[in-house]
Amino acid sequence: MKLNDKQKIAVAALIFLVVLGGLGALNYMKIQERSKLLAEIERFQKEEKAATEKIKQIPDLREKRAKLINIIDQYAEILPKEEHVQHDTFVNIIDGYRGETKILIQKAEYVKPKEEDKKSAQENFVRHRYRFKLLGTVPDFIEFVNKIENHTRFLKVDAIKIKPVGSADDAGGDDLSDKADEEELARATESVKEIELTVSTYTYFKGPDKKI
Predict the structure, then answer these.
(1) Nearest to 111 by CA among 128, 124, 125
(2) Per the confidence metrics, is the pTM higher than 0.70?
(3) For residue range 59-113, what is the model confidence (pLDDT) as tens digits?
């Protein structure tokens, strides 16, 4: 079938429009792809910048880490060794501080850590607590506690309960500050009391050195 001039022009225009549309669609796809690539490049550049900044901080972090290790080592030096917090050894250490006092250790027991204490404990530090039930006068007990607190290794008095001999646990201890009469106060301090003393300390386990 032969086409006249107008039909030829119409067909040519249609082909041109189809080609133009195809090129437009192709360009749009390329532009979209280019935008994605530019976004990826920008993201990589930000990550590279962040990584570079972190790399720059490594010398300072190493220095801070070395200082922290030194501080921890200093603390560890004043903590008892693992063998010194074992029941018999620890009780013997505390017993040695009775000295010239008439304090009598009736019972010594290891206090198991509570679940919240386990969760909040710092890594590599282990807390050890002992509860002692004693008999003695207040002046002797004060001397006894002073010796404990001056121990060459770290020891901390956590709690003290003082009550008359044979009183119920829920009766509470003597409040000596409420006794106005000095003679009564003297008699109260010189009489033998039931005393509960809780002492704690820590041991430190130095794990393998980890490099940054």
Answers:
(1) 128
(2) no
(3) 888 888 888 878 777 777 778 888 888 889 999 989 988 877 889 999 999 998 7
Burial of 112 (0-12, 13-18, 19+ CB in 10 A): exposed
How far from the centroid of its chain's Cα atoms is residue 101's Cα? 39
Express each pLDDT in 23-41 by its tens digit: 777 777 888 888 888 888 8
Q: Which residues pair with 129 in a beta bridge?
A: 111, 200
Inter-residue contact 137 to 193 (CB < 8 Å): yes
Q: What is the 3-state secondary structure (H, E, C) of the chain?
A: CCCCHHHHHHHHHHHHHHHHHHHHHHHHHHHHHHHHHHHHHHHHHHHHHHHHHHHHHHHHHHHHHHHHHHHHHHHHHCCCCHHHHCHHHHHHHHHHHHCCCCCEEEEEEEECCCHHHHHHCCCCEEEEEEEEEEEECHHHHHHHHHHHHCCCCCCEEEEEEEEECCCCHHHCCCCHHHCCCHHHHHHHHHCCEEEEEEEEEEEECCCCCCCC
